[in-house]
Structure formats: C-alpha cells, structure tokens
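Retro notes (design track)

What went well: tokenization of the new backbones is finally stable.
What didn't: we kept losing track of which sequence belonged to which structure.
Fix going forward: every design gets posted as structure first, then sequence, in one message. First example under the new rule, 242 residues:
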C-alpha cells in the first residue's frame, strides 16, 4: 500500500509515522508513505497557497492551483488511486470504509487548512471526501494520520497475528468484549473465572455475550445492523428483560 499525503505541514507526520506499527510496516516494505508539500507546487515567487474568500467573511481559503498541480505531478494525468479530501463534510470514516480502502494499492490524501479548500478541489479533483468525526479540526493532517493508521493495521502481515483485527470493536459490527491479562488478581480485582478455565468453547461463548452486552449498553445503534445469530438475539432478549 502506498499513501501520498498532500499537506502544508509535512513535519507534523514525523513522530506518528516513525513509531510502532506504522514504522514497522514501512520497514517491512508493506507500506510506503510519501509526504508532498503543497507549497512546493504553488506558482509564483511567493508560493502563495491561500487567499481570502470570494463574497467576504473571515479566514483564508486554500487556493485550487497548488493542490491540483501537486496531485497531478505526483499521480499523473489519469490517476486510478482514490483521491481523498479530508473534510468535516465528508462521509464518516468507519471500519467498513477502512477495509474498503485497504484493498487499494495506492491512496492519495489531501489535507485542508485554514477555513478549508476551494470548492473546485472537491468538485473536480477529489474522488472521495472523508470525515473522522462530527467536529472540526484545525487541519486535515491529524485526520490523514487516522486514515493511514486504520488502513495500515488491516493490511495482511502488518499485525503479528493473522486475523487479529477480526474481533476488534466495529470489525464485526459490535464492540469488542472486555480483555484482561496477568495478574489474575490485582488489589483484590479479579479476572472473570471463565477466562482462567481453559475451556475454549466457554470462553468463546462468554466473549460473544460480553461483546453483545457491551454493544447493547453503549452503542445500541450498532445492533440494528450487526449480523446476529438466533442465540445472540435470545441473549439480547434476556438482557432487555432484566
Ligand atoms: N470551514 C470548514 C467547514 O466548516 O467545513 C472547516 C475547515 S477546518 C478548520 C480545516 C481543515 O481541517 C479542513 O479543510 C479539513 O481538511 C480538516 N478537517 C477539519 N475537521 C475535519 C474532520 N472532522 N475530518 C476530516 N478533516 C477535517
């Protein structure tokens, strides 16, 4: 997977991409990331990348030319990679969208700044628009880091254990069950007996039920779309009755 990130602040990515899973994925050749400074593609001596909005109002808008020139120079005239504009107005990033994105060999991410980007970038350059939540960030850089992170950990070979992501929260439409590790008792706080039992079938059943319970308590909206078995539905009915 190759990520092309278009930003006015490439140095923001240094720490995030040089640690832990993303660093290891890059070192293993599973991921490559190219940071492109939009300012380098701005025409004119002063390399201006923003201007005041037509129609008035506060703040500055990112000009279209530097962004078009940057993306076209890097991806070529007929790119087949998704060109994603990070925007609070985009479709909300979910685990399902992350999985879709992980199937592409290359993804381009455009980070906005200031009051946003000229609308023509969205209309005539971007092929998709993603938001990481219903709030407004100061820029698209943190959102781009989020996209790189969620997509990278889904790529085959990135996480040690194959299938490690399948039980993550949201992967199967539910929140994950509670997790514990050693010691079995800490300050009198204990680990559920079943997890120490060695009974694999019982552990699987307990985890499924706790996953359902947690989703029912915290995100009941997810249950409407989650694939549920008859046993799951019966368990949820019992929860409703208690
Ligand atoms: N005025 C814009 C609006 O109301 O839609 C918001 C501009 S915001 C201050 C600057 C940039 O941050 C945006 O162009 C976008 O790239 C990024 N951004 C802000 N919130 C975001 C979010 N929730 N998800 C993804 N990107 C976001």
């Amino acid at each position: 997977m190759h990520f092309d990130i278009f930003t006015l602040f490439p140095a923001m990515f240094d720490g995030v991409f040089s640690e832990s899973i993303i660093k290891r994925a890059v070192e293993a050749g599973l991921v490559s990331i190219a940071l492109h400074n939009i300012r380098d593609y701005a025409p004119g001596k002063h390399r201006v990348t923003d201007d005041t909005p037509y129609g008035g109002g506060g703040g500055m808008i990112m000009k279209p030319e530097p962004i078009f020139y940057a993306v076209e120079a890097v991806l070529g005239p007929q790119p087949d990679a998704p060109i994603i504009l990070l925007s609070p107005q985009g479709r909300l990033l979910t685990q399902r969208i992350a999985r879709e994105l992980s199937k592409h060999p290359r993804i381009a991410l455009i980070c906005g700044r200031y009051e946003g980007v000229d609308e023509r970038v969205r209309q005539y350059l971007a092929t998709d628009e993603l938001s990481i939540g219903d709030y407004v960030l100061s820029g698209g850089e943190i959102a781009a880091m989020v996209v790189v992170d969620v997509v990278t950990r889904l790529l085959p070979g990135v996480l040690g254990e194959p299938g490690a992501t399948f039980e993550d929260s949201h992967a199967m439409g539910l929140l994950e069950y509670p997790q514990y590790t050693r010691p079995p008792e800490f300050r009198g706080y204990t680990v559920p007996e079943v997890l120490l039992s060695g009974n694999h079938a019982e552990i699987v059943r307990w985890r499924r039920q706790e996953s359902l319970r947690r989703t029912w308590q915290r995100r009941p909206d997810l249950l409407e779309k989650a694939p549920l078995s008859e046993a799951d539905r019966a368990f949820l009915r019992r929860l409703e009755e208690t």
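Added context from the reviewer: The longest helix spans residues 200-218.
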